[in-house]
Amino acid sequence: MSRRFGKRKEEDEYASEGDNPPKKASRTDDSDDADGIVVCEISKNRRVSVRSFQGKIMVDIREFYVKDGKQMPGRKGISLSMDQWNVLRDHADEIDELVANS
């Protein structure tokens, strides 16, 4: 027995007549989160980079894909603030030890 938790709106239904469906905003190369400094490539499609995002320094570990012959950042990844990066770095020896014992 399945339950429905909400009604799905028809694609034609919008806030008012004449409104178009919302469009996804596209990023431009002028944005504050432009390419950072690539520290290393973990594998063919994974990189670690340091970049600035909204005025804050971030350590970005991300998968990339190729689109129109250009490397583009994917959704899979994580951006760590400096506080988060410091916590991870401080626990690196502990993580290495647990991996070695597994």
Concise description?
By secondary structure, the chain is α+β, with helices and mostly antiparallel strands. The protein contains two helices and four strands. Strands 1-2-3-4 form a four-stranded antiparallel beta sheet.
Task: Report on the architecture of this protein.
The chain has 102 residues and is α+β, with helices and mostly antiparallel strands. The model is unreliable at 8-18 and 22-33 (pLDDT under 50). A hairpin with a 2-residue loop joins strand 3 (56-67) and strand 4 (70-81). The chain has 2 helices and 4 strands; from the N terminus they run ββββαα. The protein has helices at 82-90, 92-101, and strands at residues 37-43, 46-53, 56-67, 70-81. Strands 1-2-3-4 form a 4-stranded antiparallel beta sheet. Helices cover 19% and strands 38% of the residues. The chain has a domain at 36-101: Transcriptional Co-activator pc4, Chain A. InterPro entries: PC4_C, ssDNA-bd_transcriptional_reg, Sub1/Tcp4-like. Belongs to the transcriptional coactivator PC4 family. It is found in: Nucleus. Residues 40-91 form the Transcriptional coactivator p15 (PC4) C-terminal domain. This is Rna polymerase ii transcriptional coactivator kiwi.
